[in-house]
Amino acid sequence: MNETLVTVVGNVATEPETVVIATGAAVTRFRLATTTRRWDPERGEWVDGSTSFYSVSAWRTLGSNVKESVGLGEPLVVQGKLRIRQDEKDGRRYLVAELEAVAIGHDLARGRSTFRRNGASSAAPQPDTRPPAPALAAAAP
Q1: 58 phi-psi bin (left φ>0, alpha ψ -120 to 50, beta other)
Q2: Whole-model pTM?
Q3: What is the pLDDT of residues 51-60, one digit of tens each?
Q4: Are 14 and 73 in contact (CB under 8 A)?
Q5: Mind telling me which InterPro entries this protein's record contains (predicted)?
Q6: Domains in the chain with CATH codes
Q7: What DSSP assignment string belongs to 91-128?
Q8: What is each CA distance from 100 to 11, 45, 52, 117, 138, in whole angstroms?
């Protein structure tokens, strides 16, 4: 159907937790925070704007891999189905932004990550059989 897929870049705001629901399926949930930044020409520096929080749900294998790979404060890129719902608590109404994750990865613009295929942890590392990359020409001074 017409799902709204979005990509959100931010930091893990809560430790990922896995729960088993009544049907027996496992889901890993965490909050993702993203803060806008803009250049302030008067101050000559970057300034932070408002922070948005997203509740992220990752099901099945994706959720299991998130639980094993992602920690509090780490920078992520999350793609998922966006749902906005209205809720009420203590007489106050508010909006909740939820992402049902389709794909999650570390933001490699801000750090390094190592990828391991599922089930490969007990196997010996395989040699790299790709052809060598072509040598880059040195830039002229």
Answers
A1: beta
A2: 0.76
A3: 999 999 999 9
A4: no
A5: NA-bd_OB-fold, Primosome_PriB/ssb, ssDNA-bd
A6: 5-106 (2.40.50.140)
A7: TEEEEEEEEEEEEEEE-TTS-------TT-SSSPPPP-
A8: 17, 35, 16, 22, 46
